[in-house]
Amino acid sequence: MELTNQQKQEFFEQGFVKLPGIVPTPLVHDALRAINISLGSKGMDPAQLPTLRSRSYCPEIQDSEAITNLLYASQLWSVAESAIGQGNIKPVRSGQIALRFPQEGPERIGNPHLDGMHSPLNGVKEGVIGNFTALLGVFLSDIPHPFMGNFTVWPGTHRLYEQYFREHTPQSLLQGMPDTPLPEPQQVTASAGDAALVHYQLAHTIAGNTSPFIRYGIFFRLSHIEHDALHWECMTDIWREWLGMRDVVSAAGR
C-alpha cells in the first residue's frame, strides 16, 4: 500500500496525513489486551507517573509483538516506505505506549513542541536534539470529539520551522522552541485502527482529556537509514529524507 498523490499533497502542505482504518481490528485488540493485562498485573507506581507520561506506559511490553505488529503486520510499514523510500527506514524495535487518562479541570491544550528536546523526565540528554524523520501514531480507541486526549498539531509548522532554522540554525532549538507566530492548533479525531503519519518537524502536543474514556495510542519514531549523518541538515531541508515525496516537492518548485 502506498500514499496516494492526494495524500502526499496533504502531507506536504499540512505536515501530517490521517490513514483511516489502516490497522486491522485483530491487531488493535491484541495491543489493547497486552496493555490492559500489563495495567492489571503490573499496575503503576504513582511516583513514576510523570516519567511514564513522558516516556511510555507499560514499558515492559513496548517491544512485544503485540505492539510492533501494529507497524509490521499492517500496511503501515509499506505506507511509510512509500514516502521515505523502500529500504530507507531503520528497523523499529518498539513503540511508545501513550495513554491519556480522564482528568479534572478545564479543557486545555498543551504547549507546542518537537520531539527529542531535553526535559528532566524524557531521557534525552541535555545539549542534544534527538530528532528523527517521522512520527507514526496508531490510535487504539475512538476519539470522535475534541478534548479526549487528542493528538494535536499545528498544521504547516514543519515548513515554518524549516525557514526559521535556516535563519537561526537548527542548533537554536537547544535554547527552546522557536519564538514565532503559529496557526491555530488542530485536535486530531480518529477511530480505533486509524493512524497518522507526521513529519518530525511539525509542532504538536496533547489536548486534555475531559471525557470518561482512556485514550489509547502507540507512537513509533521512524528514522532514515542515513539520519545520523543528516542530523542537522534535514532540519533546514525538511524533504531531504523523503525520497517518495520528491515528485510533490518538485511540483511545488522546491
What does this structure look like?
By secondary structure, the protein is α+β, with helices and mostly antiparallel strands. The protein has one domain (5-247): q2cbj1_9rhob like domain (Jelly Rolls). Helices cover 28% and strands 14% of the residues. The protein has helices at residues 5-14, 25-41, 49-54, 65-72, 76-84, 157-168, 233-236, 246-251; strands spanning 16-19, 96-100, 134-139, 151-153, 186-187, 195-199, 204-206, 215-222. The mean pLDDT is 96. This is Phytanoyl-CoA dioxygenase.
Under CATH at level 1, the class stands as: Mainly Beta
Domain tally? 1
**Lateral strand order in the biggest sheet:** 1-6-3-8-2
Structural class: alpha+beta
Are there runs of 5+ residues with pLDDT below 50, and where?
none
Which tags fit this structure?
254 residues; alpha+beta; five-stranded antiparallel beta sheet; 28% helix; globular; Phytanoyl-CoA dioxygenase
Briefly, what is this?
This is Phytanoyl-CoA dioxygenase. This protein has helices at residues 5-14, 25-41, 49-54, 65-72, 76-84, 157-168, 233-236, 246-251, and strands spanning 16-19, 96-100, 134-139, 151-153, 186-187, 195-199, 204-206, 215-222.
Write the layout of secondary structure elements.
Blueprint: H1 5-14, E1 16-19, H2 25-41, H3 49-54, H4 65-72, H5 76-84, E2 96-100, E3 134-139, E4 151-153, H6 157-168, E5 186-187, E6 195-199, E7 204-206, E8 215-222, H7 233-236, H8 246-251
Antiparallel strand pairs: 1-6, 2-8, 3-6, 3-8, 4-5, 4-7
Helix pairs in contact: 2-4
